[in-house]
């Protein structure tokens, strides 16, 4: 009886691990929001890593150590943090900045797990407003594939992107239009 149970558990475990191996080697998460403000008002809030702290859903540790270096904004701007278990530790750097339309960032997580991903914000003018898309993509190592069998990472991270875009929307829609783009 015990031998049968052990064999069944082993077969199920092997099947789960084999199924995980068939998952894609990369992932992509994307969320969008329409903001009733022009790109001229929104872009500076994305292109400046200091300004992102006002709407980022990841600024949840008041004791977090924050360091800014490199350019003040745009390509070359760098933000590093080291916080509690909820926010971990990492580094993000703007690698490309196309005024009023796109900001690309290199995200390197050190804790709670190591990861290197690409984050991209795109802004598309729609009438008097702007469609803002927040996307992240990267490699999905084997252990991440196993994790996706038990948790919906798209839903988990996507909900954080939705929270951040909602905060960005509130800030951009109430702010005067006098901010100039880079």
Quick recap:
It contains five helices and seven strands.
Overall average pLDDT: 90
| Total number of helices | 5
Spatial separation of the terminal alpha carbons = 71 Å
Oligomer: single chain
User: What is the fold-level CATH name, i.e. the topology?
Assistant: Alpha-D-Glucose-1,6-Bisphosphate, Chain A, domain 4
CATH superfamily: START domain
Can you identify the CATH class?
Answer: Alpha Beta
Approximate helicity band: 25-40%
List segments where confidence is low: pLDDT < 50 over at least 5 consecutive residues.
178-182
Specify the overall morphology: elongated
Number of domains: 1
Helix-strand topology string: HEHHEEEEEEHH
Derived structural class: alpha+beta
Q: Which CATH architecture?
A: 2-Layer Sandwich
Radius of gyration: 20 Å
Sequence of strands across the biggest β-sheet:
1-7-6-5-4-3-2
Keywords:
36% strand, 7-stranded antiparallel β-sheet, 7 strands, single chain, Alpha-D-Glucose-1,6-Bisphosphate, Chain A, domain 4, 182 residues, elongated, alpha+beta
Structure description:
The structure is a single chain. The protein is of the alpha+beta class and 182 residues long. It has a single domain (26-174), classed as Alpha-D-Glucose-1,6-Bisphosphate, Chain A, domain 4. It is built from 5 helices and 7 strands; from the N terminus they run αβααββββββαα. The chain has helices at residues 2-21, 39-47, 49-52, 142-148, 153-174, and strands spanning 26-35, 65-70, 77-82, 89-98, 102-111, 115-126, 129-139. It has a 7-stranded antiparallel β-sheet. Helix 1 crosses helix 4 (142-148). It starts with a helix and ends in an 8-residue tail after the last helix. The relative contact order is 0.23. Mean pLDDT is 90; it is low at 178-182.
